[in-house]
């Protein structure tokens, strides 16, 4: 704790947010004075926190006792001294400290998302490999609304008018919200978040911010914090920000494209041969994504809303075809220099938990490399019209069933994690099915 204590003193921190990520990506934990935080002999949280769904409900009673102890024991939270970040919007001088979850006996808690990513990274370390990732995160800015039945609308910008059409890559459209993004960039710099470019995406008031490539665990932490940062900046300016995968009808969905490459012990890119050509490792990584991604699909599309994004044939992938510089493919090899050769997984929505999405993508690629899995033929045309490759699941229920029945996912991610994650998401889905939609009221109420 010496490094952490010195950092807190150097930055005159008075208050600590001690947090972990749940399955959804919600920051859960405790807030306390910094002196109390340093004096604690390990912060504790009930293990049931990890099986709480996005609605606040828990899994069905019939499986509850299968996932946690019948005494609902506490987990011991240990701070990562390399995961300390200021909270720029707080009234007090505050720092957020990301923690890892352990049992009282000192074993990593299998259900904790950050532990899952560390488990996958250990597989790479065992081979002398180091994955490098770069996420691209899309989101919408919207007007505030206290009525969830009311469709989301673009907010009013500096001009006094909301966007009325699509403004892909428009500098002027992005500058409509310049004061907000000045705060986002300032706050990200203060927190040590390594963001790069800002892009106005296709949708009305839809934006994308790219992260610089780097270490997978650090960048998962950064995405986890970044989502909260954007929401806080939006609130400061009287609007909302949402990372839903498909928040607005007839508008493009929001994704989290994940660029990934793998370095050997000498820092060389194993996806490239010495002559600059593709290596077998690149093809096997693609093959692993194609073979196992459908069995881990809920990690990339974790919510009911996630699957609405795949209904569009214009702005989201519909299968796991792959190609070079082909944005219609779910798996794209960007046109780059040999040393920068990488794979872009375009499947994940912006609504993912970054720890789980990173873990899932890296695991699928790893399994492809260690098992020499060959990919399908590379396509050169539109992947939307590619009928030889299985389509992505169209609903959460189908995706959960595949994951639940996957022996590979149970063996690699852990039986307990798979069962807990599936049951939490299944409970959320059952909750969703009880809601009567506005479409049903509009078209069925007076006609059937």
TrEMBL record:
Location of the GS catalytic domain: 113-448
User: What are the GS beta-grasp domain coordinates in residue numbering?
Assistant: 14-106
- The domain of life is Bacteria
Fetch the Gene3D superfamilies from UniProt.
Answer: Glutamine synthetase, N-terminal domain (3.10.20.70), Glutamine synthetase/guanido kinase, catalytic domain (3.30.590.10)
Pfam families in the record, alphabetically?
Gln-synt_C
Task: Write out the entry's keywords from A to Z.
Answer: ATP-binding, Ligase, Nucleotide-binding
Q: Where is this region: Disordered?
A: 144-168
EC numbers for this chain: 6.3.1.2
Coiled coil (UniProt feature) = none
Which GO terms label this protein's molecular function in UniProt?
Answer: glutamine synthetase activity
User: What family classification does the UniProt entry report for this protein?
Assistant: Belongs to the glutamine synthetase family.
Q: Which PANTHER family match?
A: GAMMA-GLUTAMYLPUTRESCINE SYNTHETASE, GS CATALYTIC DOMAIN-CONTAINING PROTEIN
Q: What is this protein called?
A: Glutamine synthetase
Q: Which organism is it from?
A: Endozoicomonas lisbonensis
Q: What is the lineage of its organism?
A: Bacteria, Pseudomonadati, Pseudomonadota, Gammaproteobacteria, Oceanospirillales
